[in-house]
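COMPLEX REQUEST
Ligand: zinc ion
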Amino acid sequence: MKIDESVDNINRKALEKEISLLMQKLYPICRSITGNGFRETVRILQEYISLSVHEIPTGTKVFDWEVPKEWNIRDAYIKNSKGVKIVDFKENNLHVMSYSVPVRAKMSLEELQKNLFTLPDYPDWIPYKTSYYNETWGFCISYNQFKSLTDDIYDVCIDSTIENGCLTYGEYYCKGETSDEILISCHACHPSLCNDNVSGLSLVALLGKILQSVSLRYSYRIIIIPGTIGSITWLAKNQLSLARIKHGLVVNNVGDNGELTYKRSRIGDAEIDKVTEHVLRNSGLSFNIVDFSPYGYDERQYCSPGINLPVGSLQRTPHGQYPEYHTSADNLDFVLPENVFDSLLQYLNVCKILENNKRYINEKPYCEPQLGSRGLYDTSAAPSSVVVDKMALLWVLNLSDGTHSLLDISERSGIKFDLIKTASDALMQKELLSEYID
Ligand code: ZN
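STATUS: Structure written out below.
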């Protein structure tokens, strides 16, 4: 089956249900940039796509960085002097700052407060904090709970380890007709946060599942990596084969209620930029397009000057631009499966156009070829849909000089891509077109 057919017959209800179930499975796991939570996440995603697991040892040099020690946590809590747990990692894994060093101590309120983090502007929410590259510890609690703490001697426990180990990432390769690749990258290093990044993980799992069920022109590579250090590690390991990547997208924040946002690649007018912008303009959904900037997610690494891949990012509300971002309010209630589905559909539409966006040569460019004698030109008073087809035929013939892709023709003529594609198929069948090969 072609991807076009698969997208046309997509079952919204069934996919929304699958997205919802997967998000519920992934949400409770305590993930970080390394460790068993990340491995468990990859294992769950392997139920959808055949991800291979890569383990890169601590200390491995990756460009200007080094793979960090592995962090794992079993338990953490704060007990008051009566032995009552007032903060419990097992109730919410955001309570412990990611990469906290192990602690076992009794301390006064004053001492404890130095290691407590809150969000005074949103007094019921727990913030998400990390300390990847500093040896420290901390607890994150709601501001309301912080205010209610009384003078006491607290029993503080973080049962964690930071040891030599590995950085884990998952990689799925779906082979197409050509070795040219489309890269889909998703970070998987956040604990119980749903829009950032459980929504993205669900999207890529289902995208991969659909891609492996259709015949493809491009090969697809989906990578599930820890943010920043993961993409740096992956790029360092694959530096010699990056030329095969022709287009790419970074997936994040795909389930909130905000409008779709496309962040362009550093190149700015690469094919992926043109295709994604076209898809959004034709989606019927509200959207926003922003230029590249060297901040955000892993596009920062893919678009660093020495790498400079045509990789953009298709998301909904960008990081930091919604109050729930990096707090306990980014939960399963905040993310709607129907929003993730709508985002997934745009990813599929981007793949669909990339798969079909070829260039052709008009084999009879000296004046118009006779379409009537080939059964392509209905001269009777035709309904308007046929007239559009006729215009699509004429536009494809006129612009098929090897320099215009089908998307260029669609944009210039204002005719939907699908109709342009149908016209080019009809003209190919009558040998009026041939595929242009660089
Ligand atoms: Zn984040």
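REMARKS: Residues 337-356 form the longest helix (20 residues). The longest strand covers residues 153-163.
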